[in-house]
UniProtKB/TrEMBL annotation:
Keywords assigned: DNA-directed RNA polymerase, Nucleotidyltransferase, Transcription, Transferase
Superkingdom of the source species: Bacteria
An example Gene Ontology molecular-function term: DNA-directed RNA polymerase activity
CC per GO annotation: DNA-directed RNA polymerase complex
Keyword Transferase in annotation: yes
Catalytic activity annotation: RNA(n) + a ribonucleoside 5'-triphosphate = RNA(n+1) + diphosphate
A matching Pfam family: RpoY
Name recorded for this polypeptide: DNA-directed RNA polymerase subunit epsilon
Keyword Electron transport applies: no
Amino acid sequence: MIFKVTYQPNTQQVPTRENTQTLYVEAASKGEARELIAKYTPYNVEFVQELSPAHLAYEQESNPDFEVSVF
């Protein structure tokens, strides 16, 4: 499954909407996606969302920089 993860790049600052960034990760569950990000990045995860096939297609079409992160 592909998950869309919204996060703050700095864990030392108060989260603000303007600093929220997105990455996509392949994992078996939301929990595994969170574990991968916690293990391999310094990011403060805000939200993990499983993408349906239609939503995934939309993200790929609307985001020219779309790529699934590999850890």
